[in-house]
Each structure stands twice: as structure tokens, then as C-alpha cells.
Design a protein that fits this description.
17 helices; two-stranded antiparallel sheet; 361 residues; mainly alpha
Length: 361
């Protein structure tokens, strides 16, 4: 036995675990009671609490049970029409702001060459979400429910999303999503109206968009050949195919360009023999100083929100793991991915390869 200051330690430790063990027992009983009453939302809360207690007790058997129950209860909550009500709303731009909206849209419609308009779209900072503005709005007024309530956000698959229990972060993400929605509204309005123009040179169609991508010279041929198929599917309104092509290719070209801009994209594999590979783009990389200082924090955050963020759109994860719903493969989301490409084309200027470099590669 060990003593400290003349006091026996083990009984205190034993008492603490006994106390936690009792809490776990009571929490599991509440979870089962709520589940039997078909109050699945409440049951999920108690199974989540039980998981936390079981983890502290290193009770792996109970952790395994509870984490499965959390997903099961959340799925039943999502499918239970009595527990959750779906609603939709329509936001109408006030008349005093409509003129400014139209003025902003028209600056892209007056160009005689659509490729100039596309370049302007990629460079226009107003279409991008600015972190400083989101933080200012989020910090100005935080709903009391985000500060005192037990929060969690669940996916359609029933999983509790990372970061959703942090009230301040959840509120920041909510404001970010609203700001991005406004930008998407502008973006889709611009694309739609460009597609309706009568003049061939000014109209956004497959041929003009393909020419814009090809002339940019920032994509490797192996990527460009596949990207062009995604563009063709976009104009055929096959958004499922288009998104499944364009999202993985964006990750590839973004890393490729990042490497050419001096960012280290080589990963050393953890094996006895030395081997290397290109990194897999992740939230960690987009948050790193190396990426944010090269690309800008605003762009890195937007890519992160669209492709990776648990409280965001998570398009990359959904595409990669087969979790995306067909309803998410739509004009708006595919246009948003195209916009990420337009940003790269708009802001990147790479030095063309010399004949010697082409031969070497």
C-alpha cells in the first residue's frame, strides 16, 4: 500500500471508482427506461453520458454497447416524425437590397467573353466567406441555449458530429453556414444567368468552361482529362457523376499546386524501410500555418467547411465513404465545387514547365 502525508491512497481511489460505477449504473437505467418509452432522443443523451463514464472506468464492454446504442437511438430519432419536424423557409431579399444584389450580379453578365467573367468570379473576394466577419457576428450575440444546453448534432446516419457539443464552436459554424449560403445564392444566380445569355461568347456552356479550364495551364493533363468529364456531366445535369469526379480531382490538383508553391506534400510512411507518398489532404493540413499562410486562412477554412468539416458539408468524406445522399448531388453543390476550381484558376499563376523539365518529368 502507498501512503501520502500519512493517508492511505487506495481506499480513496477505490471510493472514486465506486462512485462513478454507481453513476454509470443509474445512467444506463435511465437510457433503457427512455428507450422502452420510445423517447429515443432522451435515450441517446443517456447512452452518450454512459459512454463517457464507461470510458473513465476503462469499461470497454459497456463502451462498445453504448456507442452502438447512440447511433441506433439517433437513427430512430431522425426517422421519428413525432420527435423531429422538418421545416423549410424562403428568404426574400428586401426591396432596398435587391438593387444592390442585381448590380453585383450584373458585373459578371456584361462581359462579352464569359471566360473574363469566370476569371472575375474566381478572384472576387465578396463571394468568399471571411472568417473575421463570421467571428464578429458570432461573438456579438450568442443564443443562451448554445451556452447552457447540452448540445449535439447528429447526422442522417445517426452519428454524433465532432465539435457539436461545444456551444461557441457550434454557433460559429452556424453563422459560417449562413454566410456561405448567401454566397452560394449569389454564385448560383450568376451561373444560371450566364447560362441563359444569348451571345455564344458571353454564354456559359460546356465548350467555354472547358476552354477556360484548359487555358488556365494549372492542371496536370492526367487530372484535366478527368476534370473535363466532370464538366461535361455538369452540363448534362448528371450531378451525381459530376460531383463524384470533381471532388476527388480537386483534392488532387489542390495538393499538386500546393507542392509547386513550396508546401511540403510528401509523407514519410511509418515502416522499417523508407518509403514516401503524397499526403492525404485533411483538416489538419488546412489548419496548418504552411497552408493558411500560402493560400490564406479564409480559403483554407472554406475548403475545410465544404469538404471536411463535421458541422459543415463534409462532401469529401461523404463521397469517399459512400455516405452522400442523391439529393445532395444537385446544381447548387456541384456549382460550389466548380467555384473552388475557379478560385484556383483565378488566383494561381504557375510558371510553365521548360522543355527540360517536361523531359525530366
Amino acid at each position: 500500500m502507498k501512503f501520502m502525508n500519512g493517508e492511505l491512497l487506495y481506499p480513496a481511489i477505490s471510493y472514486r471508482f465506486t462512485y462513478m460505477d454507481q453513476d454509470l449504473k443509474e445512467s444506463l437505467e435511465e437510457a433503457k427506461k427512455a428507450e422502452d418509452a420510445k423517447d429515443y432522443f432522451r435515450a441517446s443523451h443517456y447512452y452518450r453520458l454512459s459512454t463517457e463514464l464507461a470510458q473513465r472506468l476503462k469499461d470497454s464492454k459497456t463502451v462498445k454497447l453504448c456507442k452502438t446504442k447512440i447511433v441506433e437511438m439517433n437513427r430512430k430519432t431522425v426517422s421519428d416524425k413525432k420527435s423531429l419536424k422538418e421545416f423549410s423557409y424562403e428568404y426574400k431579399i428586401p426591396e432596398e437590397k435587391r438593387a444592390n444584389h442585381e448590380k453585383f450580379i450584373n458585373q459578371f453578365l456584361v462581359e462579352k467573353d464569359v471566360k473574363i467573367a469566370l476569371k472575375k468570379i474566381g478572384k472576387n473576394s465578396y463571394l468568399r466567406v471571411r472568417i473575421a466577419e463570421v467571428e464578429a457576428i458570432a461573438n456579438k450575440r450568442i443564443p443562451i441555449s448554445y451556452l447552457i444546453a447540452s448540445l449535439s448534432t447528429i447526422s442522417q446516419e445517426g452519428h454524433v458530429l465532432k465539435g457539436s457539443s461545444d456551444g461557441r464552436y457550434s454557433w460559429f459554424m452556424e453563422i459560417y453556414k449562413i454566410n456561405l449560403s448567401v454566397a452560394i445564392n449569389y454564385l448560383c444566380d450568376i451561373f444560371y444567368k450566364l447560362m441563359k445569355l444569348n451571345d455564344k461568347e458571353a454564354r456559359l456552356d460546356k465548350d467555354n468552361l472547358v476552354e477556360h479550364f484548359t487555358n488556365s495551364k494549372i492542371f496536370e493533363k492526367k487530372n484535366l482529362d478527368i476534370i473535363l468529364v466532370g464538366l461535361e456531366r455538369y452540363f448534362s445535369k448528371d450531378y451525381i457523376s459530376s460531383m463524384h469526379i470533381l471532388i476527388p480531382q480537386f483534392e488532387g490538383v489542390f495538393l499538386d499546386i500546393s507542392g509547386k508553391m513550396g508546401i511540403n506534400i510528401v509523407s514519410l510512411n511509418r515502416e522499417s524501410a523508407v518509403s514516401t507518398s503524397t499526403i492525404t489532404l485533411s483538416e489538419k493540413h488546412l489548419d496548418s500555418p504552411e497552408f493558411t499562410q500560402t493560400w490564406g486562412a479564409d480559403l483554407c477554412r472554406e475548403i475545410k467547411f465544404i469538404l471536411f468539416e463535421q458541422l459543415g458539408y463534409r462532401m469529401r468524406h461523404k463521397i469517399a465513404h459512400g455516405d452522400i445522399d442523391s439529393n445532395e448531388c444537385n446544381f447548387e453543390n456541384t456549382t460550389l465545387i466548380l467555384y473552388l476550381y475557379l478560385i484556383l484558376i483565378g488566383i494561381v499563376a504557375l510558371k510553365p514547365k521548360s522543355d527540360e523539365e517536361k523531359t525530366a518529368s
